[in-house]
Each structure stands twice: as structure tokens, then as C-alpha cells.
Amino acid sequence: xxxxxxxxxxxxxxxxxxxxxxxxxxxxxxxxxxxxxxxxxxxxxxxxxxxxxxxxxxxxxxxxxxxxxxxxxxxxxxxxxxxxxxxxxxxxxxxxxxxxxxxxxxxxxxxxxxxxxxxxxxxxxxxxxxxxxxxxxxxxxxxxxxxxxxxxxxxxxxxxxxxxxxxxxxxxxxxxxxxxxxxxxxxxxxxxxxxxxxxxxxxxxxxxxxxxxxxxxxxxxxxxxxxxxxxxxxxxxxxxxxxxxxxxxxxxxxxxxxxxxxxxxxxxxxxxxxxxxxxxxxxxxxxxxxxxxxxxxxxxxxxx
Length: 304
Hints:
The chain is an alpha+beta fold. It contains nine helices and four strands.
């Protein structure tokens, strides 16, 4: 099989069905763009989980003056109550569960609040005297949060025990929903791409039925006859996949690594390197999708 003849047949088919080929490229581009976005979003979620789950703590909030919690009937937590709570956190009963403990007073809580919301509408909205004191507890196993909550559920001076992991779980749940939505749209678009590729290959085979008939009469094999058609779909899908990788790279470079990273410097975000890891997978998905779709279409509809 001469490579030059094969490529001339492929180029001839591309020229004859240029509008349909462009449609295949665009549909493949859009569908794989959603696939790549979903993959990158999952990579970001995984990175954020690894980073934040190692840093989050259980917060044992002490009673403020105006709390209505049953354990705060005496008003603001006293120094004696604070000492008892701290002693309990360092006791042998919790030694197997508590890794570290530090006290966060109002001044520290206010400073951290200002740093976290600097440049936003929330900056300066809460005065220092209204900040709530707490003990920040690092656990040996974050899954053992329930033990700390149960232990201090009826302790005088403790208003509430909050597991920051649960707050993060809500955020990650929303991100996972967004990923699922992207995957759903991608599946719909991939189905459209498969149908369009199959239609394009059928039309291309129909317009060249005379040439394929002659090739069959002179002894050409089915593989030799059908391969140019398959390559047409594969090339179109590959171009769409590369375009989707390029657009994702630009979006991540300028939108994520550039604009967003400057506004959330404390969080490690995905970069162009992650896009370079995803792009070959997109090309592989596009090529396999087009190749299988084209081969099945020719096997069913092309009688030579």
C-alpha cells in the first residue's frame, strides 16, 4: 500500500466533504472541551482535598456573652471553664485522638478574619470584641470528629463543636456536581459527534462509490479501500481534540494561573502542565471514537 496514494485519497475526501469535516471538528472540539474541563476540575478537587484535609481542624467554640446554648446559661466562658476544657483536651482520655491544640483568642480570630476577607465587602464588618474564642484541635484521624463532639456536647463553657471537614465536604459536593454536569454535556456532545462522523463517512463513501468499485475490480482489499475513509474521520477528530486542548491551555494560563491564582494565593491551582497531561487523553478519546465509528459505519453500509 503506497502511502502517497493513501494520503491523496484522504485529502481528496477532505476536500469533497469540507463543510461536514469542519462540522466534525467543531462538534469534537466542543465535546472534548467539556471532557477536558471535567478532568481538570477533578484534578483540582483532588489537589484541594489533599491540601485542606491536612490543615482543617475541629473548632471548640467557647460561649460568648449572649449565647442561648444550654451549656452557656452562665454567660461567657470563664477562665476556670477554659482551664477545664484545655485540661480535657490534653487528658489521657483524648490522647489517642488529639494531635495538637492551640487557643485562638479574639485578637487572633479578628486578625485571621481580616486576612481571609481582605479586599472584600466583609472586611471590617465584625469588630474584634464580637469575635468568638475557640480551641483549635488537630486530630490524629479526621474521621474521629464525633468523639470530640460527643465529649464536649454537655461541657459548660462550650457553645458548639464544629468540624471544618464538613464545611469543605459541602464545597467539594458542589464542585462534584459541576463535574457531573460537564460530563453529562460531554456525553451528549460525544454522541452527536459519533453520529456526525458516521454520517460524514457514509456520504463520503457514497460520493466515491465509483472509485471504490473500480478499486475492488482490480483486486484491492477491503482494508485498502476503507482505510482512507477511516483516516478522514480520525484526522478531523484529532484536530478537534488538539483545538480543545489548546483552548483549555489558554483558559488555564490566563484565567486560572493568571487571574484566579493572584486572588487566591493560598490555594494551589491547576496549571498548564495539567492541561498537557490531559490533552493526549483527549486526542486518544477523539481518535478512538472516530476510528470505531468510521469502521462500524463502513462495515455496515459500504458494500464493495
